[in-house]
Write a structure and sequence with these properties.
Strand order of the largest sheet: 1-3-4-2-5-8-7-6
Radius of gyration: 22 Å
Number of domains: 2
Helix content: 25-40%
CATH topology of the largest domain: VC0802-like
Strand content: 25-35%
Number of strands: 15
CATH class of the largest domain: Alpha Beta
Distance between the termini: 36 Å
Shape: globular
Length: 377
C-alpha cells in the first residue's frame, strides 16, 4: 500500500536501492497539484500494480510530487510497454526515474550532473528543467534561468542533446532543492510538453472570465494537433452547457465556431456582437439541439454522477460528436469518484455498442475538478 509521510519528513531514497544503470529505470515519478499527493499516489499505485510492477509509493505531503519506487530496476523499454504514463489523471507531468544525484556542490553543479546524465546511455531531444510547484520550489526559478542554458550548451557540445531528433526521449532535470537532482526520461506522447506540466497561457483581454484558460488548456492537453485542426474549424456548430458569462464560449467563437449557449445567466455582450452566438435560457439537462453538432462543452456545477451520464448520452445519441466537460470532485475519495464516472460513461457506450475515446486530466487550471474529453472513435 502507499506509504504516506508528514510534510516535515525529508524525501530520501532507500539507501539499498541499486545504483542507476544505463537503460534501466528506478521508478515512475509524477508531479501533481500540491495537496493532491494522496490522489496521485493511489492512482499511481493502482496503475503500477495493474502493470505487475513490484515496488511502493514514496510520498511527501504537500510536496507536489510522488514516486512509485521499483524494488528492482526495470529496462526502460519494458517499463514503457507495461505502463502508460499518459493515462494518469492526477499527473501534471511524469517520467521514468533514471538517476538521482545527491549533495550537489554550491559552486559546481554542472560537473556532477553532466557525469550522471552521460551515464544514462541516452541522447535527448530536449531538456525540461523542473522544480516542485511550491513556494520552496519557486525559490529555485532564478537559478534555473541562469543554469539551464549552461547545461543545455554542455549537453549539446557532448553530443547528448539533439534538438533535431524529435523521436529521442526528453530529459527531465527535477530539483527538489538546491542540493539534489532527479533525472528522468519521457517521450512526447507520454507526458506534458510543458515543464512541470504548467502551460504558459496568456489571459485574453476579450474573454469574459478566467475560466477560458481552462478550456484553452484542455484543447492543447487532451486533443492531438490533428484532432484540433479537424474539429475546431470555422463554421462548425457547438453547444456550451452552463455557459454564463461565456469564458468557454469565447474559446469556440474565437476559432470561428457557431455556439448555442445554454444558461439562465447572462452572456457577455461582446460575444453576441460577433454574430456567432445564440443564447437560450433553458435547462441544460433537458434541452436538445435541433440537429447534431460537432462540439458540446460543459462546465456546469453539478454532481459528477449527473454530469457523466449526460455527457455520455450526448455522444452516444449523436447529439454531438465530441465533448469537453468538467467533473467537480468531492473533497475525499476523488480517485474513486473518477472511476465511478468512467463506469457510468462506459455503461452507456456499451449499451449502444459504441467505440469511444475518453481522456481525463487534472489540469493546471483545474482545482477541485478534472477535465474530460469524450468522442466516438
Amino acid at each position: 500500500m502507499p506509504r504516506f509521510y508528514t510534510p516535515t519528513t525529508p524525501f530520501r531514497f532507500d539507501p539499498m536501492q541499486p545504483a542507476p544503470t544505463p537503460c534501466l529505470s528506478l521508478g515512475i515519478f509524477v508531479q501533481c497539484r500540491p495537496g493532491f499527493e494522496p490522489d496521485a499516489s493511489l492512482e499511481l499505485h493502482a496503475a503500477a500494480r495493474a502493470a505487475r510492477l513490484d515496488g511502493g509509493i514514496v510520498e511527501v505531503m504537500n510536496s507536489g510530487f510522488t514516486l512509485f519506487q521499483l524494488d528492482t530496476p526495470v529496462p526502460r523499454d519494458e517499463l514503457r510497454r507495461r505502463f502508460d504514463l499518459s493515462r494518469l489523471v492526477f499527473s501534471r507531468q511524469g517520467f521514468q526515474l533514471a538517476a538521482h544525484v545527491e549533495d550537489l556542490p554550491d559552486k559546481d553543479r554542472l560537473s556532477p550532473l553532466i557525469k550522471a546524465i552521460a551515464g544514462l546511455g541516452e541522447r535527448f531531444s530536449a531538456v525540461l528543467f523542473e522544480t516542485p510547484d511550491t513556494n520552496e520550489g519557486k525559490q529555485q526559478s532564478g537559478f534555473l534561468r541562469r543554469f539551464a542554458p549552461v547545461l543545455e550548451d554542455a549537453l549539446s557540445k557532448a553530443g547528448l542533446l539533439r534538438g533535431d531528433s524529435p523521436h529521442l526521449p526528453r530529459l527531465h532535470v527535477f530539483l527538489p532543492d538546491s542540493k539534489r537532482a532527479l533525472l528522468g526520461l519521457s517521450l512526447g506522447s507520454e507526458a506534458s510538453a510543458w515543464p512541470m506540466g504548467i502551460p504558459r497561457l496568456r489571459m485574453p483581454g476579450e474573454a469574459p472570465s478566467r475560466s477560458t484558460l481552462k478550456l484553452a488548456e484542455a484543447i492543447l492537453s487532451l486533443l492531438t494537433p490533428e484532432e484540433q485542426k479537424a474539429s475546431l474549424r470555422p463554421g462548425l456548430l457547438a453547444v456550451d452547457l452552463g455557459a454564463s458569462p461565456g469564458g468557454w464560449t469565447w474559446q469556440l467563437i474565437s476559432r470561428g465556431l457557431r455556439v448555442t449557449a445554454i444558461d439562465n445567466g447572462p452572456m457577455a455582450p461582446s460575444l453576441a456582437a460577433t454574430g456567432l452566438l445564440e443564447h437560450l435560457r433553458v435547462d441544460g439537462f433537458s434541452w436538445k439541439p435541433r440537429k447534431p453538432v460537432e462540439w458540446m462543452v460543459c462546465d456546469m456545477v453539478e454532481q459528477p454522477s449527473r454530469i457523466a451520464p449526460l455527457m455520455a448520452e450526448w455522444v452516444a445519441s449523436g447529439r454531438c460528436r465530441r465533448s469537453i466537460f468538467n467533473l467537480k470532485l468531492p473533497m475525499k475519495r476523488r480517485h474513486d469518484e473518477i472511476e465511478r464516472c468512467r463506469a457510468l460513461i462506459d455503461q452507456r457506450m456499451r449499451a449502444g455498442n459504441i467505440k469511444y475515446i475518453l481522456r481525463i486530466k487534472h489540469l493546471y487550471h483545474d482545482r477541485e475538478e478534472v477535465t474530460c474529453y469524450l468522442t466516438r472513435r
